[in-house]
């Protein structure tokens, strides 16, 4: 069987399209690369969806945490503490079993026990909390002069936030937010090992990599392939976020532009 | 088991709950919290040692050594840690068995990898198939600790590497002016002075490490996640004196609360250590302390 046939059979296997049975013996390198790559579709799906939805909530939470009114501030603080203070792995388990219990009472919750919705919700809330904290920190370091200048120009309320505070906050938060995005994509690998079932063996990249490692008892092929895919994904994320970063900083004089430094010290969550 | 618990069917309400929460399996569940703490207690210094080694290697003037250090640090960044965990647990096991195989069975002529099997001679098996159960469990735990130490060592190496570069150049130059050798400068100035710069990164790492402990479950150790799934599942009257429905949600809620409390306590303690270390340092924090005291 040529590699092209393998791609046709297994390229979209993680979505349930193509060959139904996974290879069982005589694994070729091509099969491993194609299947693990097919699983990456799920990692990208989870990551992109959680990132886009989480961004909106993170902005709201950050603004909420910066309020002086305790009725708004306290819930935001608790939300951030709840999701940053506990392991994502446990959050997945808890959410899955909570949805399972809800499902037995209300059939409406049936889709929530599937990874495509349930895990996305957990990742969305989780990344909203982490990014919310980053945005909150950036919000506090918006230069006083910027807001005073906005006042002088007669900006107020929503327009001031939309035109002055928010872009500056994003500009300051962007390097840390890039790291959060990288970590979010890495965290998507946890979905199918933490309760959420991979129905009909439709799993993510890690699911297929561990499938091959279990079957061949040789971790030295599938995991490096997985690592290669993730490094590639990380580089793509960095370059896309780099484009946004340049746009956010384009009004600044050349020497004041902050070049994001992707050091693991800031990379951790 | 308490004497009042001899007939669970007759119990009700709180008494039932008290008896339920003190069964033998629940005791095993509580002990597994100790496993988590033990893992942290061993892994944290081990990872710090790995990190120190990695940072010193990355700083080395000998190019190949420096490359190894830098690669070790860089590779963890691009790849999810969970992939490393699943990889190392098998890879380390096979590496140890292979080394023992080379040493103990030199006249073995068959290939190690036969199709989809990894075959070493019986004497090289780790642990030996004749070993008692606790040896198997300890070996599994030790592998997990080593895996954690390698992965988090890379993170620690990065933090320490940055901290060593953050120590003000003037302090090193002063040491040189006093005639200290390179080794003396490293031991007496650089290492003691770097901690204040390393602590924010290391505290962050500690938090990450706490939140990574449930991954023990994936490495085959009977940890709190294992027991929460085990105990929470639906129990029918045939198999247990304490039948109940699917309570896994509540067990995992308990784990969430445990981790929230743990990270909160860590935060408070680390803030105190930071205040202690900042004392008298040439940093913004140290300056603030001086002003507050004056």
Describe the structure.
The complex is a heterodimer of chains A (269) and B (294). Chain A has 269 residues and is mainly alpha-helical. Chain A has one domain (3-267): MetI-like fold, CATH 1.10.3720.10. Helix content of chain A is 70%, strand content 0%. Chain A has helices at 3-10, 29-65, 70-84, 88-105, 115-140, 144-152, 157-187, 205-216, 222-248, 264-267. In chain A, α3 crosses α5. Chain B is an all-alpha fold. Chain B has one domain (3-293): MetI-like (MetI-like fold, Orthogonal Bundle). Chain B has a two-stranded antiparallel sheet. Chain B is flat and about 80 Å long. The N and C termini of chain B lie far apart (60 Å). Chain A: It is found in: Cell inner membrane; Cell membrane. Chain A: One of its GO terms (molecular function) is transmembrane transporter activity. Chain A: Belongs to the binding-protein-dependent transport system permease family. HisMQ subfamily. Chain A: It comes from Roseivivax marinus. Chain A: One of its GO terms (biological process) is amino acid transport. Chain B: Keywords: Membrane, Transmembrane, Transmembrane helix, Transport.
Main sheet of chain A, how many strands, which sense, barrel?
none
Strand tally of chain A, please?
Answer: 0
- The helix content of chain A is 55-70%
What's the assembly state of these chains?
Answer: heterodimer
N-to-C SSE string of chain A, H for helix and E for strand: HHHHHHHHHH
Radius of gyration of chain A over all CA atoms, rounded: 22 Å
Overall average pLDDT of chain B: 86
- Specify the helix fraction band of chain B: over 70%
The CATH architecture designation of chain B is Orthogonal Bundle
Stretches of chain B where pLDDT falls below 50 for ≥5 residues?
none
Largest interface by residue count? A-B, 46 and 50 residues
Ends of chain B: how far apart?
60 Å
**Spatial sequence of strands, sheet with the most strands of chain B:** 1-2
Mean pLDDT of chain A: 89
Order of helices and strands of chain B: HHHHEEHHHHHH
In CATH terms, what is the fold-level topology of chain A?
Answer: MetI-like fold
CATH fold topology of chain B: MetI-like fold
How many discrete domains of chain A? 1
Count of helical regions of chain A: 10
The SS-based structural class of chain B is mainly alpha
Organism (chain B): Roseivivax marinus
Pfam family, one (chain B): BPD_transp_1
GO cellular component, one term (chain B): plasma membrane
Family (chain B): Belongs to the binding-protein-dependent transport system permease family.
């Amino acid at each position: 069987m040529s590699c092209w046939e393998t791609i046709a059979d297994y390229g979209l296997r993680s979505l349930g399209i193509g060959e139904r049975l996974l290879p069982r013996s005589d694994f070729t390198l091509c099969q491993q690369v194609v299947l693990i790559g097919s699983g990456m579709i799920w990692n990208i799906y989870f990551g992109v969806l959680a990132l886009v939805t989480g961004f909106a909530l993170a902005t709201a939470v950050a603004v909420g945490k910066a309020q002086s009114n305790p009725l708004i501030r306290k819930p935001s603080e608790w939300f951030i503490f709840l999701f940053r203070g506990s392991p994502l792995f446990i959050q997945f388990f808890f959410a899955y079993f909570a949805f399972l219990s809800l499902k037995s009472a209300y059939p409406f919750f049936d889709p929530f026990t599937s990874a495509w919705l349930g895990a996305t919700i957990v990742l969305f809330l989780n990344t909203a909390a982490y990014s919310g904290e980053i945005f909150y920190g950036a919000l506090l370091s918006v230069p006083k002069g910027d807001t005073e200048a906005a006042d002088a120009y007669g900006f107020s309320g929503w327009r001031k936030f939309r035109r002055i505070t928010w872009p500056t906050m994003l500009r300051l938060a962007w390097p840390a937010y890039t790291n959060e995005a990288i970590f979010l994509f890495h965290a998507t690998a946890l979905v199918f090992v933490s309760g959420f079932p991979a129905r009909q063996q439709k799993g993510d990249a890690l699911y297929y990599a561990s499938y091959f490692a279990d079957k061949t008892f040789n971790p030295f092929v599938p995991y490096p392939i997985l690592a290669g895919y993730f490094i590639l994904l990380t580089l793509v994320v960095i370059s896309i976020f780099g484009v946004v970063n340049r746009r956010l900083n384009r009004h600044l004089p050349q020497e004041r532009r902050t070049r994001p430094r992707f050091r693991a010290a800031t990379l951790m969550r | 088991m308490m004497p009042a618990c001899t007939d669970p069917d007759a119990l009700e309400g709180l008494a039932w709950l008290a008896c339920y929460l003190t069964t033998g399996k629940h005791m095993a569940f509580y002990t597994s919290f100790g496993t988590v703490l033990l893992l942290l207690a061993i892994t944290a210094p081990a990872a710090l040692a790995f990190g120190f080694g990695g940072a010193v290697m990355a700083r080395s003037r000998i190019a190949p050594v420096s490359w190894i250090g830098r690669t070790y640090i860089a590779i963890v960044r691009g790849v999810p840690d969970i992939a490393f965990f699943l990889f190392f647990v098998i890879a380390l096991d096979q590496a140890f068995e292979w080394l023992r195989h080379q040493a103990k069975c030199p006249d073995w002529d068959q290939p190690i990898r036969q199709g989809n099997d990894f075959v070493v001679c019986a004497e090289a098996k780790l642990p030996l198939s004749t070993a008692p159960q606790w040896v198997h469990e300890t070996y599994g735990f030790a592998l997990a600790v080593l895996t954690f130490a390698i992965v988090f060592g890379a993170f620690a190496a990065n933090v320490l590497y940055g901290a060593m570069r953050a120590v003000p150049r003037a302090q090193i130059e002063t040491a040189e002016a006093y005639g200290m050798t390179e080794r003396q400068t490293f031991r007496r100035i650089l290492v003691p002075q770097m901690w204040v710069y390393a602590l924010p990164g290391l505290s962050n790492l500690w938090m990450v490490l706490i939140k990574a402990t449930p991954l023990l479950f994936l490495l085959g150790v009977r940890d709190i996640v294992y027991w929460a799934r085990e105990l929470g599942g639906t129990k029918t009257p045939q198999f247990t004196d304490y039948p109940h429905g699917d309570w896994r949600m509540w067990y995992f809620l308990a784990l969430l609360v445990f981790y929230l409390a743990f990270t909160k306590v860590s935060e408070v303690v680390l803030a105190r250590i930071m205040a202690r270390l900042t004392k008298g340092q040439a940093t913004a924090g140290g300056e603030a302390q001086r002003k507050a005291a004056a």
